[in-house]
Amino acid sequence: MYFEFSEEQLMIRDAARDFANTELKPGVIERDEHQKFPAEQVKKLGELGFLGMMVDPKYNGSGLDTVSYVLAMEELSKIDASASVVVSVNNSLVCFGLEKYGSEEQKEKYLKPLASGEKIGAFCLSEPEAGSDATSQQTSAIDMGDHYLLNGTKNWITNGSSASTYLVIAQTNPAKRHQGINALIVERGMEGFTIGPKENKLGIRGSDTHSLMFSDVKVPKENRIGEEGFGFKFAMKTLEGGRIGIASQALGIASGAYELALGYSQERKAFGKPISGHQAIQFKLADMATEIEAARMLCLKAAWLKDQGLPYAQASSMAKLYASQVAMKVTVEAVQIHGGYGFVKEYHVERLMRDAKITQIYEGTSEIQRIIIAREILK
Ligand code: CAA
Ligand code: FAD
Question: Where does the record place the Acyl-CoA dehydrogenase/oxidase N-terminal domain (predicted)?
Answer without folding.
Answer: 6-118
